[in-house]
Design goal:
With 285 residues, the chain is mainly α. The protein has one domain. 63% of the residues lie in helices and 8% in strands. The protein has 8 helices and 5 strands; from the N terminus they run αββααβββααααα. The strands form 2 sheets. Strands 3-5-4 form a 3-stranded mixed beta sheet. Helix 1 packs antiparallel against helix 5, helix 4 crosses helix 7 and helix 6 packs parallel to helix 8. 33% of the residues are buried.
C-alpha cells in the first residue's frame, strides 16, 4: 500500500530550495557590511575591504614569490641597479610609512611590462627597455605601477570580484529554486560574462586612468619630466601589434590616453621644475 503523505525527502525539498536564496542573500549582506568606502588619491569613491590589509599584503608577497620562481631573474647587475635606482626615487615620494622595504626584481622577458604589488613588490621585464628609452620614461612606468598600489586598486578589484561572485551565487540560487539547476548553471555562465564585460573591465579602465594621474604626479615630484610619460606611451603604441576594442580592454584608448598625459604634463611642469630646484635630480642611467 502506498502512503498518501509525501515522503520526508520530498517534504524537505521545497524548504531546502527556499533556504538557498536566503543563504546567498545573507552571504551578500555579510560581504557588504564588511566592506567600506574610501576616497582614492583622485577623489573617486571606492568600495574596499574584501580582505584585510595584512591579507592583501600577504597575497602580494606570495604572488611575487611565485613570479620569481616561475620567471628567470636577470643577472645584469647594471640594469638591475638602474631599475632599483628609479624605484627608490619614486617610492621616496610616498608617505613615510610606505617608503621603505620595496623589493625589486628584473625578469628576463621580452614583453615590455612591469607590475607592482601590495607588500612593496615591483617586477620589471627586460623588454621594458625597448619602450622606456631613458630614466624618465622608466620612471613613468614604475610610477604608474606604484600608483595602482597606493590607490588601493588591488583591494578594490578583489572586493568587486568577491561581490560579483557572491551576487552571481544569489542570482543563481534564485533562478535555481524556481526553474531548476540547469537554469541556475546557465545564469552563472551568462552572468559571469556580463559581470566581466560590464562591471570588472570598465573598473579596470578607470583604475588605469587613475594610475596614469597618480603616477605622473609621482614622477614629477621625484624630479622626472612628466612629458616623458607621453613619449613612453607613444613608444608603447608603436611597439604594439594591435589593440582590442576599448569596451573589451582593461586599458583606456591609446590616443585618448596620450592626449590626457600630454595635457597633464603641462600642468605638472612647475611641480617638476620645483623638484629639480629642490635637489631631486635623479641620476639613475
Amino acid at each position: 500500500m502506498h502512503s498518501t503523505n509525501p515522503s520526508p525527502d520530498r517534504a524537505r525539498a521545497p524548504v531546502a530550495a527556499g533556504w538557498r536564496p536566503l543563504a546567498a542573500g545573507l552571504a551578500l549582506a555579510a560581504l557588504l557590511s564588511a566592506c567600506a568606502t574610501t576616497t582614492s588619491p583622485t577623489g573617486r569613491t571606492q568600495v574596499v575591504g574584501g580582505m584585510s590589509d595584512a591579507q592583501l599584503q600577504q597575497l602580494g608577497i606570495q604572488a611575487f614569490d611565485q613570479a620569481k620562481k616561475s620567471k628567470k631573474i636577470s643577472t645584469n647587475a647594471a640594469q638591475t641597479r638602474y631599475v632599483r635606482c628609479v624605484v627608490d626615487s619614486i617610492t621616496r615620494e610616498l608617505p613615510a610609512q610606505q617608503q621603505s622595504g620595496w623589493e625589486v626584481a628584473l625578469f628576463v622577458d621580452d614583453e615590455p611590462n612591469a607590475f607592482a604589488l601590495p607588500g612593496g613588490k615591483v617586477g620589471v621585464n627586460t623588454g621594458i627597455f625597448k619602450v622606456a628609452r631613458n630614466q624618465d620614461q622608466l620612471a613613468a612606468v614604475v610610477a604608474h605601477e606604484v600608483g595602482h598600489v597606493i590607490s588601493n586598486h588591488h583591494d578594490e578589484r578583489i572586493t568587486r570580484q568577491i561581490g560579483a561572485r557572491t551576487g552571481l551565487g544569489l542570482l543563481g540560487a534564485l533562478v535555481g529554486s524556481r526553474y531548476g539547476q540547469n537554469a541556475a548553471n546557465t545564469t552563472g555562465q551568462l552572468g559571469g560574462a556580463a559581470v566581466q564585460a560590464g562591471l570588472l573591465l570598465p573598473n579596470n579602465r578607470t583604475q588605469e586612468t587613475e594610475a596614469d594621474v597618480v603616477g605622473q604626479r609621482l614622477m614629477a615630484r621625484a624630479g622626472y619630466d612628466p612629458h616623458q610619460a607621453v613619449d613612453l606611451w607613444k613608444n608603447m603604441l608603436a611597439a604594439s601589434s594591435g589593440q582590442p576594442p576599448e569596451w573589451l580592454s582593461t586599458h583606456p584608448n591609446p590616443a585618448s590616453r596620450i592626449q590626457e598625459l600630454d595635457r597633464r604634463a603641462d600642468s605638472l611642469a612647475p611641480v617638476w621644475q620645483q623638484a629639480r630646484a629642490g635637489g631631486r635630480q635623479p641620476r639613475c642611467g
